Amino acid sequence: MRISPLVAGLIGGFVAALLQAFFNVFPPPAYGVCIACHTRDLVNWIVNNLFGSNLGLAPVSKAFPVLTVVGIFIGAFIAANAHKEFKLKETHNPIVGFVLGILVIIFALLMGGCPLRETIRTAYGDIIAFISLIAMFIGVIVASEVYLKRKAW
Q1: What pLDDT, on the 0 to 100 scale, is given for residue 140?
Q2: Three-state SS string across 88-103, please?
Q3: Which of 73, 66, 76 lies closest to 33 in space, CA to CA?
Q4: Residue 106 gets which letter from DSSP?
Q5: Could you give the 3-state DSSP secondary structure of residue 153?
Q6: Which of 57, 64, 75 is nearest to 23 (CA)?
Q7: What CA–CA distance (Å, rounded) separates 42 from 29?
Q8: What does residue 73 show for φ and ψ, rounded to 5 degrees?
């Protein structure tokens, strides 16, 4: 059974509306589906519950962790296996990849670097979010050009 992105979005939106209407579930403003924020909240929730610490969490994550990252990972794994596209790949230097990944997450958390979150904040009228969104767009274009030109050499 194939589900188009449109149908998946409509189902997700309908379920979200039902949750809000019947169970009074409301996400915090400008939270979005941010892999950096949800990963931070998941890790902080686990650490807080294991060690009794008081690391920062979004209000929606205080009672129960947001499992978006786990769901995306499992969904991608199932989709890749269903379409016979799952392959383990070795990187040239896993330490560099790990450090770069950590830096991306750190800067995403520092700057609010999730495009969806920046778009939502811009819709709320946040001028800093608008500037960040434009800067992110320019950064992607410049980095893509540099990368593509370097690959063409």
Answers
A1: 84
A2: CCCCCCHHHHHHHHHH
A3: 66
A4: H
A5: coil
A6: 64
A7: 18
A8: -60, -50
Cα separation, 37 vs 43, whole angstroms: 10
Question: Within the chain, what is the greatest distance between any pair of CA atoms?
Answer: 58
Query: Closest Cα partner for 36 from 141, 119, 121, 106?
Result: 106
Is the Cβ–Cβ distance between 150 and 143 less than 8 Å?
Answer: no
The structure tokens listed for 86 are: 């799952």
Number of C-beta neighbours around residue 28 at 10 A: 11
Query: Which pTM was predicted?
Result: 0.61
Calpha distance 30→18 (Å, rounded): 20
Tell me how far CA of residue 26 lies from CA of 13, 16, 31, in angstroms. Answer: 13, 9, 11
Q: pLDDT (tens digit, 9 = 90+) per residue, 14-67?
A: 887 787 788 776 666 556 677 788 888 888 999 999 999 999 888 777 877 878
Give the Å distances, CA to CA, from 12 to 6, 15, 49, 62, 69.
10, 5, 30, 23, 16
CB 33 within 8 A of CB 115: no
Tell me the helix, strand and coil percentages in the chain, rounded to 5: 70, 0, 30
Q: Which two tokens stand for residue 92?
A: 């040239």
Which three-class secondary structure state does DSSP give residue 117? Answer: helix
